Amino acid sequence: MPEPILTLSHLSKSFGALKATDDVSLDLRPGEIHALIGPNGAGKSTLIKQIAGEIRPDSGSVTFEGQAIDDLGPADRARLGLARSFQVSSVVPGFTVLQNVMLAVQGASGASFRFIRPALSDRNLTAPALFHIQHSGLDGRETVKAADLAHGERRRLEIAMALAMRPRAFLLDEPMAGMGAEGAHDLTAILAELKSEAPILLVEHDMDAVFALADRISVLVYGKVIATGTVDEIRKNPEVRRSYLGEEA
Amino acid sequence: MRLTGALPNFVVFAALIAVAVIADLTGNPYIVTLATKVAIFGLAGVGLNLALGYGGLVSFGHAAFFGLGGYVTAILASHAASATPVATFPFTMMGTNEMLAIWPFAILVAGFAALVIGALSLRTKGVYFIMVTLAFAQMLYYFAISWPTYGGEDGLSFYVRNTFPGANTFAPLQFFGICATMLAITMVLVALLTQSRFGLALRAAKENETRVIASGIKPFAIRLTAFVLSGMVAGLAGALFADLNRFVSPTMLSWHMSGEIIIFVILGGVGRLAGPIAGAAVFITLEYLLGPISDHWQALLGFLLILIVLFAPKGLMGLALGKRGNA
Amino acid sequence: MLLLAEQVLNGLQYGMMLFLMAAGLTLVFGVMGLINLAHGSLYMVGAFACAAVAAATGSFWLGLAASLAAAAALGALVEIVVIRRLYARDHLDQVLATFALILVFSEGTRWLFGSFPLYLSLPPVLSGAVTLPGGLIYPAFRLAIIVIGVLVALGLFWLITRTRLGIRIRAGEADREMIAALGVDIAKLYTMVFALGAALAGLSGALVGSVQSVQVGMGEPVLILAFVTVVIGGIGSIKGALIGALLVGMTDTLGKALLPGLFARFMEASAATSVGSALASMLIYVLMALVLIWRPTGLYGARA
Amino acid sequence: MTALLDLSDVTAGYGAVQALFGVTLALREGEVLALMGRNGMGKTTTVRVIMRMLPLTGGTLFFDGRDIARLSSYRAAQAGLGLVPEGRRCFAPLTVAENLSVAARPGDWTLPRVLELFPRLGERMGQAARTLSGGEQQMLAIGRALLTNPRLLILDEATEGLAPVVRAEIWTAIRALKGQGVSILVIDKSLKELGSVADRAVILERGQAVWQGPMSELGEDVVNRHLGV
Amino acid sequence: EGVKVGMITTLSGGGAGLGIDVRDGFQLALKMAGTSDVELIVEDDQQKPDIAVQIADKMIQSDQVDVLTGIIWSNLAMAVVPAAVAQGKFYLSPNAGPSALAGAGCDKNYFNVAWQNDNLHEAAGAYANSAGYANSFMLAPNYPAGTDAIAGYKRFYEGAAAGEVYTQLGQTDYAAEIAQIRNSGADSVFFFLPGGMGIAFMKQYAESGVDIPLVGPAFSFDQNILQAVGDAALGVRNTSQWNKDIDNPANAAFVEAYQAEYGRLPSLYSSQGYDTANLLLSAMAKADLKDADAFRAALEAADFASVRGDFAFGPNHHPIQDIYVREVVKEGDVYTNKIIGTALEDRGDAYAAECKM
Ligand SMILES: Nc1ncnc2c1ncn2[C@@H]1O[C@H](COP(=O)(O)OP(=O)(O)OP(=O)(O)O)[C@@H](O)[C@H]1O
Ligand SMILES: Nc1ncnc2c1ncn2[C@@H]1O[C@H](COP(=O)(O)OP(=O)(O)OP(=O)(O)O)[C@@H](O)[C@H]1O
Ligand SMILES: [Mg+2]
Ligand SMILES: [Mg+2]
């Protein structure tokens, strides 16, 4: 079994009396999609935020490529190669689609203190950006401001930006949401291809996508991992069916 | 695409030059002085705009940097006049009358102040940032008022304008030329800066900090850099303003001054390169034209400003440019 | 010892006065999220209205009513004609517009009332001094200000957190379009609340103006002080504004009273007074800077 | 029978960009109408026009026989339109309780009923909406709209981000609402669920209604052509 | 041939009242003289030093005025005057008299027709002695004019200091200071708090129940301010070089004409504007401005009927004049002052010796 790229050990975070994540340990291995599912408010996004460094866990630690990253801030973690997408699209509204993706490329490249050369004529930024725009089905929309995009288009932009960072691991928080049937379908294909480049920790409520994509699934309920296993194992788990899937599976 | 973006800025700048030159030719030195004032406040505004317009850092304390630039100028000049040293420790430093020697000092002092104030203030955001920067400027202001060495509230005169190689700085048009040149250089630099990678990160941080961080860029460093550069430009403007009046006083440090520069920026159009120049020009022209009409000209000015806000949502430059993108 | 007690009381009282001056701003700026630089002007309008009506009728109380009415009416007018068009805009447009309003109001007032200060004095019930338990002689109006300040604080607190109006206004601040789409006439509410904020500014103008001076420009220092108070306390929090005000009042008063003496211990007397007083004038700004560096959203402001 | 909601040849846009190029649709009292279309085709724009959040540049808009094209948003809402907007738009600094009560109007839906539908919200009453999880915010947005007791409920991707169990409950609730005679305009990506609830569907493409008809007639070819699945 | 006069003064904002009075007094004198030889240009400095400098530049460069006047505030005067006189213009000050311009920084073309800034404070000190005060509490804002005020007071005052407090410029609440006064054991309070500061202080002082007598310079007791202070000012002694009841024909004519023209009583500032104009007219009658030396000599002679009585220039072109003690009284409905004595006679100023010209 290959060494995990990302390991969470015993992460806990409370908000007042509420334990949003409660002693969570999991890992993400090269080449896999590890899906994280669970009821609303189970603590999935909170966990992503702790991995990305936006929230400090109360206890526990995160190891990334063999290095403990607990003392790093979110920007440093991103620079190390942990790219995340947001559950609620978080793009730069006043920027065009192209500029948004360029920003992601620039961030990953690490060179932001260049003052003279216009960014728009910097092929090191524009070429990868245009590639990822096309890849995410936004071609033709490069010069539209992000604020003027339809909801689903903005979701695609969110994905394009994560891809453009060419990270070592992805943290995707509900990437399918708002995409529409067609979009979800396209994205499923993209992610299936992407996982060989970098493994993906996928938070998602779209079970069709999860069951189609996931190599492993962990189920989070009230902040605790109640089960981890393959698609089939999870599908059959009665506790998961009751508290999460309902009639569906 | 870039050319159409630059053109309006060029037009505004050219118009300012034209006004000054024509006024000089037709024997209206005062109009030249007003044009100089527009250039200087325009410069301060272009500096502030770097922080405020592109970085979203609404500094209500830029008078601090403007005033420091002014005080550095006046202190060096007055010591040169009295041939006394400015400081004897750690080394003896004499005053000077050379603008080219004064400016680097003014810019450095302002930049250093901006570094300190910025590093502390940037912990806060939005209105809180407005108020902390105000607080620091007010501290300097009250200090200047009550510190007797350089005149306190009375201010400090140095009677003759500082010199510039090859120019007669006392001739209004020549002094205007110096100010306009500094303005032009700064505008070009700021234009480049805002389109650069740095500018991309800066503008992104204004609109969505979380995204910038998630992209691996630390907004604090970006913002602090912008703030310091912005303070340095304001310091240079302050140095020029001191020379325009041959006099500095704590009013240069007061919140009214900060407010005035902000008003010029907003009036001209936030985040528009030539916006502050347009804003300063219109404001100063209105002051000049309305003054003689009535003792209550400020009310008229107020009404006109309200009309401008209501009908020119993106400032004067926005009005002139119509719906086109940000220049 | 009595002196120190008196100075502490003065600090409290000054804090209450600041709270009163900032109360309208707490509502308009803190709760509605509107940067209203004309707050000081509304304060001035209240004072002038009170002075004019009190002079004409001989009754301070009628003047006080007039100050509320005049400031509220002007506030409503301003909201409908100018401010309303700016909610959807950048905050900075509000800065420019309300700055312009300062010019209009100041010169308008000067045009109506002339350039000289007006007479406005307290009614007999509030004037003179009373002896407090412990032998402290204290001006009656200062005690009155404490009482009125507490009442205003309670009223505002109740309004903002306990009434549906308050909830709606805060919702409107968060997402104006959405609250309208839920069937709330937010425009009308905003006008009302802005007018209420203006009325509070006017009220404090009349009350405070009657023990200070009623003149054009009286609103300017108030503007800055009010913003300082609201921001130290944390935007949107009435409790914060109250505590911020008391803190500023205490710091300012005790700073003035104690600093020169403190410096005199290790400095030559005249230098000590001037350094001490210079520092005392900066003190509230030092306080604000420290508070905000320590807590970037003020004492009770919402944390991100 | 006249329609409860009637759009005819509606055009609208954002500044210079036109987004709707003549949308015509009608929704009858008591009906559930599905509004479908790919990303960016104008569904939300249509909703914004109906809610009077965006002006019409042409066409007519009637609700309950009344011309509401010129009404302001709050009046349209008071006339009986209730919205669960795209992207939730909860009032971030307000608590859950405040969000729910802010615009509540008396009627069938009361706070206890909403909390029964979403027990999760009951646990979080005092918490600021800003700190809720995505799904909790979605529940809040739905609850908030229900409490205005609308005659026509508009759900713009109301099930986005909800866990499967909760999603199923929402559909159950929609059926119940329909049973009570509430009319519903629903946008959702789940064809399966829409098929079981909606009476009719309208498909938008580039700002125009390119297909409309009873849900039962929505064939695979139409879906493939216009929804791209 | 005529003389072109540029008046830079404060006509808008909170300090406008002073500038308006100076301007009105000046214009009244011109009108009464019936002369058309003086062309007067008035501009508003908004009480901002940089604006004042720019207006001065304009008046000198574009309007080519011969004489400048009008500035109210010391800091504005310091910004404008040195540069203006260096360019050979005459400057006649109707109000501000900062020490720098009276001493080392004096100039042959600078004339002050009001007072050296310390004068009224000095007179207050002298009065305190004569009133038998031996333990004064002193209060002034923390800026140069404030420190000068207390220094000026102490120049003549011989008693002890019960306390010396510098307040913040623009401060409006004086509870802390009044508490200090109450506890200081002082027998008198000297204060210099111009404008709104003084109004606020006096009202609060009156409410505080402290009854230690106040003295101060005329600025807080001027005609236009007194109405705003009301009863709180009654009985307070203050020092001034002018009052409307000074008994001389020039003053009587002035007071009457001023009321007729503007419908209000003249203020200290009105009188200073009026005297400034009359000084100018007197010099114009004697010499041609083209001949600067002759004109200067004519100004130095100060051969005009000052409304304050005897008036002469000292070696530094600052007044030598009597300074009176006034008391605030109520005449009918109007609060005003009446002279109750003379504090200093033929007082020049403390800086004349430093002036080399
Ligand atoms: N700052 C906070 N203060 C208090 N409670 C919080 C805070 N942030 C999150 N919570 C609570 O923590 C719980 C976990 O939230 P989280 O966003 O991680 O859920 P989630 O699993 O992502 O749910 P969803 O699928 O609905 O997005 C929720 O109940 C939420 O209300
Ligand atoms: N605020 C806006 N400014 C300018 N254009 C906009 C704006 N909002 C939407 N648009 C544009 O209008 C068109 C229709 O958008 P709309 O939001 O109605 O689509 P939608 O069908 O709801 O899509 P989605 O499924 O992604 O939510 C799109 O091309 C979009 O880019
Ligand atoms: Mg989540
Ligand atoms: Mg949509």
Automatic annotation (TrEMBL), chain A:
Protein name: ABC transporter ATP-binding protein
PANTHER family per record: ABC TRANSPORTER ATP-BINDING PROTEIN (PTHR45772:SF2), CONSERVED COMPONENT OF ABC TRANSPORTER FOR NATURAL AMINO ACIDS-RELATED (PTHR45772)
InterPro entries: AAA+_ATPase (IPR003593), ABC_AA/LPS_Transport (IPR051120), ABC_transporter-like_ATP-bd (IPR003439), ABC_transporter-like_CS (IPR017871), BCA_ABC_TP_C (IPR032823), P-loop_NTPase (IPR027417)
Source domain of life: Bacteria
UniProt keywords, alphabetically: ATP-binding, Nucleotide-binding, Transport
One annotated GO molecular function: ATP binding
Annotated source species: Albidovulum litorale
Source species taxonomy: Bacteria, Pseudomonadati, Pseudomonadota, Alphaproteobacteria, Rhodobacterales
Limits of the ABC transporter domain: 6-247
UniProt cross-references to Pfam families, sorted A to Z: ABC_tran, BCA_ABC_TP_C
UniProtKB/TrEMBL annotation, chain B:
Record InterPro entries: ABC_transp_permease (IPR001851), LivM-like (IPR043428)
Protein name: Branched-chain amino acid ABC transporter permease
Principal location class: membrane
CDD domains reported for this sequence: TM_PBP1_LivM_like (cd06581)
Keyword Cell wall biogenesis/degradation: no
Membrane topology listed for this record: Multi-pass membrane protein
UniProt xrefs under PANTHER family: ABC TRANSPORTER ATP-BINDING PROTEIN (PTHR30482:SF17), HIGH-AFFINITY BRANCHED-CHAIN AMINO ACID TRANSPORT SYSTEM PERMEASE (PTHR30482)
Keyword annotations from UniProtKB, A to Z: Cell membrane, Membrane, Transmembrane, Transmembrane helix
Domain of life: Bacteria
Transmembrane domains' residue ranges: 7-25, 31-51, 63-81, 101-120, 127-150, 170-193, 220-241, 261-286, 298-321
Cellular location(s): Cell membrane
Record keyword Cell membrane present: yes
UniProtKB/TrEMBL annotation, chain C:
Assigned keywords, A-Z: Amino-acid transport, Cell membrane, Membrane, Transmembrane, Transmembrane helix, Transport
Main localization of the protein described in the UniProt heading: membrane
Signal sequence, renumbered to the chain: none
Pfam families noted in UniProt: BPD_transp_2
Keyword Cell wall biogenesis/degradation: no
Transmembrane regions listed in the UniProt entry: 12-35, 42-62, 68-87, 99-120, 140-160, 189-211, 223-248, 269-294
Protein name, as recorded: Branched-chain amino acid ABC transporter permease
Species this protein is from: Albidovulum litorale
TrEMBL record, chain D:
KW Manganese (keyword) present: no
GO molecular function, one term: ATP binding
Organism domain of life: Bacteria
Domain ABC transporter, chain residue ranges per copy: 5-229
InterPro entries associated with the record: AAA+_ATPase, ABC_transporter-like_ATP-bd, ABC_transporter-like_CS, BCAA_Transport_ATP-bd_LivF, P-loop_NTPase
Range of residues in the leader sequence: none
Pfam families assigned: ABC_tran
Keywords noted in UniProt: Amino-acid transport, ATP-binding, Nucleotide-binding, Transport
Keyword Transport: yes
Coiled coil: none
Family classification: Belongs to the ABC transporter superfamily.
Alphabetized PANTHER family for the sequence: ABC TRANSPORTER ATP-BINDING PROTEIN, HIGH-AFFINITY BRANCHED-CHAIN AMINO ACID TRANSPORT ATP-BINDING PROTEIN LIVF
Name by which UniProt lists this protein: ABC transporter ATP-binding protein
